[in-house]
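agent> Task received from the user: take the single chain below, predict its 3D structure, and emit structure tokens. No templates, no multimer pairing.
agent> Plan: (1) validate residues, (2) run structure prediction, (3) serialize to tokens, (4) report one or two observations.
agent> Step 1 OK, no nonstandard residues flagged.
tool_call: predict_structure(input=
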Amino acid sequence: NKFAKTAVAICTSIAITQFLAWIGSTTYSYKALRNTALIAIIFQWIVFFHASGIIFGNERTEKYYDLTGASTYISLVFTTVHWRGGFDSMGIKQFILNICVLLWALRLGTFLYYRSIKNNGIDSRFTEIKQSLGRFVTAWTLQGVWVFITALPIFYLNTNKISTNVSHANFNILNVFGLLLWLFGFLFETIADVQKLLWRMKEANHHSFICYGLWSLSRHPNYFGEICIWIGFYIASYSEFETNLQAIAALISPIFVTLLLVYISGIPLLESAADKQWGDDKAYKDYKQRVPVLIPWIGRTGDAPF
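)
tool_result: status=success, residues=306
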């Protein structure tokens, strides 16, 4: 029944995050990681109680969904930094990595919330989901999982024992390459989002598809940028992990982001919606055959997943 499915989904979400907290932890960091995983999900539930109308009797709304996700990232970064002893307790590399996550979350959260306000708080993803309380709470719970897994590398680093190892103080080629890839992805995603936002502001474009700027190089340049961000972040973090097992466990972050966007909630949903709206439009057909679905210039075109 519906209750059983919801219970399984919630228990599985908690089990997955707790497993990742355990597998990448040390004796020193396990308690902090365990609590971080729990807070990531509980934070969503707190907002869910308002959004669902259970307490205040309001109509179910997804208006604060994306903003809550971004706020959770920011809150947990500051929380784990506080548990560690503050920014003064870390070297310049770890400080920069924390700033990267904070900048990304602040930028994405602000953009998504602004877009939500422009759409009167309506997100097409929730049209059917919010009709069922069980599916609605599952969606909020899964956002907690998304937060914890995506930012797993920084949570590992922030809860590790403070190291005085000289190798953690000096930049190496992986740190530099990873941070440059992160910056490239951050700028690519930001520019793509701004271009589409400005394009949508023009009334003449309300019923057409965007195909200029970065959108002429990739049909989903914002997702390409997002994937580059987390691959770059992992590479930049690699030499800072305390154990090999921790480095392997943290690899789930860029893999998870890539699979989520390419096969689950990103590209498939948008491609399906675009095909329904412009599938018979010759200009759209030409655009789809000419422009790669994800990776600019060298990516596959047409109906390929990436």
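agent> Step 4: summary for the user.
The chain is about 70% helix and 0% strand.
agent> Done.
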